[in-house]
UniProtKB/TrEMBL annotation:
Positions with a binding annotation for Zn(2+) 2: D100, E135, H392
Free-text remark on how the cofactor is bound: Binds 2 Zn(2+) ions per subunit.
Species this protein is from: Alteribacter lacisalsi
Domain of life: Bacteria
InterPro entries: Amidase_Cbmase, Bact_exopeptidase_dim_dom, Peptidase_M20, Peptidase_M20_dimer
Record keywords: Hydrolase, Manganese, Metal-binding, Zinc
Keyword field contains Plastid: no
Name by which UniProt lists this protein: Zn-dependent hydrolase
Amino acid sequence: MPDSVITEQLAINKDRLSRHMKQLSEYGRLGETGVCRPTLSPVEKEAFGKVAEWMEEAGMTVRLDNFGNLIGRKDGKDPDAPVVMTGSHIDSQPAGGRFDGTVGVLSSIEAVHTMSEKGIIPDRPIEVVSFCDEEGWRFGKGLFGSRGITGNLEAGELDRKDADGITRRQALREFGCDPDKIPESRFSPESIHSFLELHIEQGPLLEKADQPAGIVTGIAGPIWLTVKVKGFAGHAGTVPMAMRQDALVGASEMIVAFHEIVKEDPEGTTVGTVGELNVSGASRNVIPEEVAFTIDLRDIDLDRRNRCEELLRESFQRIAEKYHLKVDITEDQNTKPSYCSPWIQDIIDSESQALGLNAPTMMSGAFHDALVMSSLCDYGMIFVRCREGISHNPKEYASDDDLAVGAELLYRTLLRLAGDS
């Protein structure tokens, strides 16, 4: 069925969703199409204020919890029943796009707004969440808000510092939260019925299939490592090549080795990235003494991911010995992959067929808050087509029609999950 025919069936308000998307993109606008909206920053606080306003207009009560999550609640017929939770995040990469995360938050608000306008009171309460710090670049560890409410934070996380030396604890206080009371913001397993997240695909499969929306089958789990390579500084003009302990040469060989390890299985779904590289005391005529770089390794197959990690550790040690270096590997984040709940996939599929869609199923290589929520409840995800699969980039783009179709599918699925009777 053509997209134009599908959009004629929409219960949600396509124009309102489009307007909200455009308005929110002005907060932290970067150039013509980009966004820089750091977590727990003044600009994100302003954006939260606007999102809270839209939540209230949709008929929700709004609160900011002590993890920095913005939560809108629509009560159901049984206000004490476990909640159906939906949402995503609005923080961005340093030079990100205006759709990543944002579409999930605003589509969820639109779904609830449509229910309110139609006088629909679901059996179960629905809570829309804009999670704190999904991206993780400011404090070096992401999915903070979702890990917080599910009780998955690690020791010392509030003491992590950003590039300016500001701790997460301080940033939370300045944002209006009370880090000393974060246990009060946790959810128990019995308090959440299910979780549903809509997100742009961040990949090219939906565009290739010529479909506006897809059904996620599972999310690859990332492991984040920081590798520090220690050598010995010396004069670039006087130390013979055979006597050098060049940390940058060793680190470079490690990066190439990592790339080859990840590519070993051409049929596999393993991906690996070195995203940051820092040479301490860099100078043109000094042999580099210390180099640090980050690793992002992920796969839906945990055994295969673990095998890659084992191989990279063995390889890095051999390379360090070859160049008379020391290597230290620190684990910053380790999240297991998770498959979406089959019964929620079935509901999404049923509603997509009712809309006339032929929504394909696919795995998510990117991590999302839904991955963390799977530790507490059943979950599902809907993907929306994005042009050329571009994401984490100002050129990120999804059409109004595709967003509307995704929001409609979210709305219909939420009605099923929340038990509209």
